[in-house]
Structures are given as C-alpha cells and as structure tokens.
C-alpha cells in the first residue's frame, strides 16, 4: 500500500505521524487531545474500492475469514478498512510492515500486539462510517465513538444501562440536545469498559460518569466490585459532525 509506506517512512524519522497532505489521502485525520502522550486518529471508512482492496491486503488470514463472515458488503468494508488503517498506524509506530503485525486477544477480546519487543498501547472503535484509534507508548487506553444520527429510544436505553443519577442528569437536558448527551455519556462509559478490557462483562451501571456533553468527562463514582475504575481519566475527542467520542487513559501515578 503506497500510503502505508509513506506513513512508515515518516515514523522512521521519529516525527509524529502527520495525516495531512498525501498520507492516506482524505482517509485519516489527527484529532488533538489534551494529553501529550496519546495520538488520536479519526478515519473515514467509506473509501473507494481500490483503497478498500489495499486495506484487505494487509489483513491476516483470520481477519480475512472474519471479514468474509459479514453478510453485508458494507459491514465487510467497514471491518476491513478499520483493521487496515489500524495496521497502517501501528506499523508506522513499530517500524514494521502493517501486514506483519500479529494481534493477540485478551480474555474478553481486547486486541494487543503480540510478539514485539516494544509493544505500544492502542484501542479502536468504529461507528457507521468512522473509526477512532488511540495509540500511546506509555498509557493503556480505551476508546469509543458513536454515530448520533440513529433512531433509538435513548430514555429506554438509559434506564436499562445507566445509573439513576446519570438518568436524572439526562432528563434535565431538553430534546434535541438529549440525544447527543446520551451518546456522550455512552461513549464515556464504553471507553472505560474498553480501557479495562472487560467490555460488557463490566456492567455499565456499576460506575457513573458525567452525563452532560459540555461538562468535562469524568468518572464520578463506582461500586466496590470495580476497583480498577478510579485509575482512568477521560478525554473528549472532538470528532465533529454526527459523531461523539471519548478516550480513556490510565492515570499517571
Ligand atoms: C468491547 C465492546 C464493548 C465493543 O463494543 P462496540 O461498541 O460494539 O464496538 P467498538 O467499535 O466500540 O469496539 C470494537 C473494537 O474494540 C476492540 N475490542 C474488542 N473487545 C474489546 C475489549 N474487551 N476491550 C477493549 N477493546 C475491545 C476491537 O478492536 C474491536 O474491533 P473489531 O470489532 O474490529 O475487532 C463489546 O464488543 C464487548 O463487550 N466485547 C466483549 C465481550 C465479552 O466481554 N465477552 C465475555 C462474556 S460477557
């Protein structure tokens, strides 16, 4: 993949990767974050067939098999591009060919880089036609991006998954702003369960986050069963458009 080579060349210079200009043209964009040790990238998944093919060529056999299992071509494309771009970004950091990266998977499915002397932390999330990636040499990470333009019962989902205080906070926000607030809250909670690696095995109502989208994302409270929770700090990733996103990073000691 021509563009991969350019990303790798740039990484080899030791400079931060710059997605502007010719690199993965139009596909990835660096999102500024108030944490100097974390790189955040937003990717478009609606690439042309040639670029999708380039991404597909980077996938491992098990990833190709997984892609083939998607019933809809659209879902196959989104998975393929999400993984292809993840491999491209990580390849640049590791100074190795993106296709040569081997992923391992923790107990609940969180991917990590296997068999590499200097592994880096990363996490990825995808929603509709966007993927979000966070990468860091020093901090463990979790990310979540959500697409707002969906017809869902936010009140019902909040009652089911959020704590009473989060539900009460959301109710104070009038429509149509409540939908954005719901998804902001959702990404804060998902970023946490993805950071710990537990995923949905950690019930979302066992910890509380700030609910309003214009308040600083923060973990407010947690139950005794989830001792890992206070170790994480949340950042809003300003991804624009019809998307909201949060990055959770392990707090520095
Ligand atoms: C992780 C999880 C919350 C992601 O939910 P989602 O909002 O649908 O998906 P996102 O796009 O935000 O994230 C998916 C990506 O997160 C990563 N991921 C997968 N499992 C993960 C985990 N446990 N922790 C962190 N990241 C994970 C992968 O990169 C995945 O991408 P892929 O689908 O291309 O492989 C959900 O899939 C989950 O809970 N999985 C674990 C299942 C589990 O716990 N099983 C055990 C018994 S309950």
Query: What is the second-level CATH architecture of the largest domain?
Result: Alpha-Beta Complex
Q: If you average the pLDDT, what whole number results?
A: 87
Domain tally: 2
- What class, by secondary structure content? alpha+beta
In whole angstroms, how far apart are the ends? 40 Å
Tell me the number of helical segments per DSSP (H or I, 4 or more residues long). 7
Main sheet strand line-up: 1-2-6-5
User: How helical, in percent, are the residues?
Assistant: 25-40%
What binds here, in terms of ligands, is: coenzyme A
CATH superfamily of the largest domain: 4'-phosphopantetheinyl transferase domain
Task: Give the uncertain stretches in residue-range form.
Answer: 1-23
Binned strand content: 15-25%
Largest sheet, strands/sense/barrel: 4 strands, antiparallel
Overall radius of gyration: 18 Å
Order of helices and strands: HEEHHHEEEEEHHHEEEE
CATH C-level of the largest domain: Alpha Beta
Which outline best applies?
globular
Which fold name is given in CATH as the topology of the largest domain?
A: Ribosomal Protein L22, Chain A
Number of strands: 11
Structure report:
With 253 residues, the chain is an alpha+beta fold. It has two domains: 2-139, 4'-phosphopantetheinyl transferase domain (Ribosomal Protein L22, Chain A), CATH 3.90.470; 145-250, 4'-phosphopantetheinyl transferase domain (Ribosomal Protein L22, Chain A, Alpha-Beta Complex). The protein is built from seven helices and eleven strands. The protein has helices at residues 2-12, 49-56, 61-69, 73-94, 154-161, 164-171, 177-196, and strands spanning 28-31, 39-44, 102-105, 111-114, 121-127, 130-136, 141-147, 207-209, 219-222, 232-236, 243-250. The strands form four sheets. It has a four-stranded antiparallel sheet with strand order 1-2-6-5, covered by helices on one side. A hairpin with a 2-residue loop joins β5 (121-127) and β6. α2 crosses α4 and α3 (61-69) runs antiparallel to α4. The model is unreliable at 1-23 (pLDDT under 50). Bound molecules: coenzyme A (COA). The site of coenzyme A has 19 residues, from α4, β5, β7 and α7.
């Amino acid at each position: 993949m021509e563009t991969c080579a350019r990303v790798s060349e740039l990484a080899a210079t030791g400079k931060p990767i710059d997605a502007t200009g010719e690199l993965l043209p139009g596909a990835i964009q660096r999102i500024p974050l108030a944490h100097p040790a974390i790189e955040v990238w937003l990717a478009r998944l609606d690439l042309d067939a040639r670029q999708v093919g380039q991404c597909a060529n980077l996938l491992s056999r098990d990833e190709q098999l997984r892609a083939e299992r998607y019933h809809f071509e659209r879902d196959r494309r989104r998975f393929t591009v999400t993984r292809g771009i993840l491999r491209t970004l990580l390849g640049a950091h590791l100074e190795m060919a993106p296709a040569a990266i081997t992923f391992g998977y923790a107990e609940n499915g969180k991917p990590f880089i296997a068999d590499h002397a200097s592994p880096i932390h990363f996490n990825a999330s995808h929603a509709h036609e966007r993927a979000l990636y966070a990468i860091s040499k020093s901090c463990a990470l979790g990310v979540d991006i959500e697409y707002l333009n969906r017809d869902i019962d936010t009140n019902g989902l909040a009652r089911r998954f959020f704590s009473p205080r989060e539900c009460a906070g959301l109710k104070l926000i009038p429509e149509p702003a409540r939908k954005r607030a719901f998804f902001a809250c959702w990404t804060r909670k998902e970023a946490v369960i993805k950071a710990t690696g537990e995923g949905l095995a950690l019930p979302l109502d066992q910890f509380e986050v700030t609910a309003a989208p214009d308040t600083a994302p923060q973990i407010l409270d947690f139950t005794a069963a989830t001792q890992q929770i206070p170790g994480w700090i949340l950042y809003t990733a300003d991804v624009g458009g019809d998307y909201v996103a949060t990055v959770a990073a392990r707090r520095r000691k």
